[in-house]
Hints:
This protein is of the alpha/beta class. It has helices at residues 4-11, 15-29, 45-72, 85-88, 91-102, 121-124, 172-175, 189-194, 210-217, 228-233, 267-284, and strands spanning 34-37, 40-43, 77-83, 106-112, 130-134, 144-152, 154-159, 180-182, 204-206, 223-227, 241-243, 253-260, 287-291, 296-299. The strands form 4 sheets. It has a 5-stranded mixed sheet with strand order 4-3-5-12-6. A 5-stranded mixed sheet has the order 9-8-10-7-11. The protein has a two-stranded antiparallel ribbon with strand order 1-2. Helix 1 crosses helix 2 (15-29) and helix 5 packs across helix 11. The radius of gyration is 25 Å and the shape is elongated. Mean pLDDT is 81; it is low at 290-307.
Amino acid sequence: MRSMGKAAERLAVSQPSVSKAIADLEHTIGVRLLDRTVTGVVPTAYGLALLKRSLGAFDELRQGIKDLEALADPTVGEVRVGCPEAIASGLLVKVLDQFSSQYPHVKVRVLTADNMMQELWQVRERQVDLLLGAVTKLFAEDDLEAEVLYNDRPFIVSGSNHRWARRRKVELKELLGEPWLLPGEGFFQAEAFQSDGFAVPKFGVTSYSVYQRLLLLSTGRFIGLLSGSVLRFSPAEHLSLSILPVDFSHRSWPVAIVTLKNRTISPVVQTFIDYIRDVARPLKEGLIVSTAASGGVMRGPHAPPAR
């Protein structure tokens, strides 16, 4: 802002009041918090340090106001959740559908967090109440808590009208010449192929959009890699997709709720987290995907689809 006058206007007080408050604070702390220049005021290193620490205090104050509002009316409030597109297009759709039907006056904000381990700052800086997505198996952040909901894994998928969907067994090497639909670079597909001694397929489409890949897979012209949670919670059945009976090496990864330790969670956020747990429970219990092609529910992380 760089202006005492603008700060005073935003706070609806006089400029001398703002100047006096800052001067009193500097006198109490014993260091200069702002440098006055010809172009305005800028925070010193001391000011920046104090600002960083004060974020937590002001956030707790905001949470306190929200808690008071919730006590007056527990069906209102705000939830801010960060997640990757795969979660937003799958599991979170069902959570939002169920939650919003019971709490229609709660505002839910879904923010982008495509790579969870690089987006932890969103929780630390209180931009979101929680992150929801894949974390490393040895998650170790002293100031954060990760509640693992289930372990996910990749599946090789095609449209049910694809020529490979009619086979009872398929070798991965047979599919490498097909056009593929893959997530962006750096996702799990590289390890899935390389662990079997193959390079990532070069033909097809690479897209961040789960919905786009689902629609293109349903045309029957592509092979794709999709996670179990996407298959379970996205409209995969309605798009006539089949899990191909391919025996390939893969790794699983934990999907977790990440929150800030020692931070007060408002009642409405806690309720939202409870809804996430309920929706994710089938995957935790081993119910991986349900597809029309498999004739029912696939159980366990290594179960082949029934043909």
